[in-house]
Amino acid sequence: MREVIIYCSKTGFTKRYAQWLQESLGCSCIPWEEVQTVDLGSYDTVIFASWIHAGKIQQLPWFLSQSLKAATKIVLVTGAAPPDNEETRRTLEANFKDCRQEEYKVFYLQSGLCYEKMGWKDRLMMKVFSKMLDRMKEKDGTKKEMAGLVKNSFDYSKRENLQPVIEYVERHCR
Question: How far from 170 is each of 15, 45, 54, 173, CA to CA, in Å?
Answer without folding.
Answer: 21, 11, 33, 6
